[in-house]
Amino acid sequence: MFRPYYTPAWFNGWDIVFEGIIVLIALLIAAYSWKAYKLNKENRFAYFSFALMLVALGFGLKIITGSITYFDQAKDVALETLRPLAGEHLEFTHLLYRTGFFLQMVPVLGALLLIFFVSQKPRDRLHKYYELSQIALFVYLILLISVVSNFKYFVFYLTSAVLLGLITLNYYKNYLNSNRNHNAFRVMTAFLIMLFANIFFVFVFLVEEFYVVAEVLLLAGFLVLLYTYYKITQLKK
After folding, report:
1. Fewer CB atoms near the end CB (10 Å): N or C, the chain?
2. Burial level of 68, CB count in 10 A (0-12/13-18/19+)?
3. Does the global pTM surpass 0.90?
4. Do residues 15 and 211 touch, judged by C-beta distance below 8 A?
């Protein structure tokens, strides 16, 4: 069975729980951002909401592929459902697994790229030809990276780490420009924790237990982000 990397056997299934919580958190933050957009009519809130929905989609697909990988019953159901695609003798199963991992990587990378744009200084976007052409290029690179990551998994996490590093830097600048606002600091901290999580993911091939550390850090980062959005919404009431 195809797996992009191997994880500690004792943690199999627990990562699905962690990622299920992340999906719920991402949807909650998306809802908070959408409410902010409806109140302020600022596009950055709508973009951030869409980005978090992409995160929820990516991790939701990861839960599905993880369940099929870990649990025989889920695997049997998936194989019977997808038998027309897998072939009479299941000869294309390997390809379907790779497709599943590809589909979970694309929305996450797309979300991080969109958050990177949102974290930059506000300016009018999507109205100039060169910006639209840049977005087309980025979409192509995301698809290409996702394909390559099916063969070298760390390319996905390395790319995510680079994007998160840029996002963290932008929010650090925002923190300095906001007179060291506590909520700005929390947002920066949340993405910094996610950055460390992805660095640990990169080196899972060296130490399998790094996968556990990465999952814990990733969940912690999303919890900090959720807490920040909760504090912001409470202040606006």
Report:
1. C
2. buried
3. no
4. yes
**169: which residues sit within 8 A by CB, 6+ positions away?**
none
Q: Would you say 110 and 142 are in contact if contact means Cβ atoms under 8 Å apart? A: yes
Please give the average pLDDT of every successive group of 10 residues along the chain, which has 237 residues.
68 90 96 87 87 95 82 64 54 61 87 89 55 70 78 86 94 87 91 96 91 96 92 65
d(CA 98, CA 84): 17
CB atoms within 10 A of CB 6: 10
HSE of 31, CA atoms in CB hemisphere, 13 A? 8
Q: What's the rounded Cα separation, in Å, for the pair 212 and 204?
A: 9
DSSP three-state, residue 42 = coil
Say what the pLDDT of residue 74 is.
62
Q: How many Cα neighbours within 13 Å face the side chain of 91?
A: 3
In b/e form, how buried is each residue of 114-143, taking b as 16+ CB within 10 angstroms?
bbbbbbeeeeeeeeeeeeeeeeeebeeebe
List Cβ<8 Å contacts ≥24 apart for 14-17. 14/215, 15/66, 15/211, 15/215, 16/63, 16/66, 16/67, 16/70
Q: State the Cα–Cα distance between residues 33 and 38, nearest whole angstrom.
A: 9
DSSP character string of 134-189: HHHHHHHHHHHHHHHHTTSTHHHHHHHHHHHHHHHHHHHHHHHHTTS-HHHHHHHH
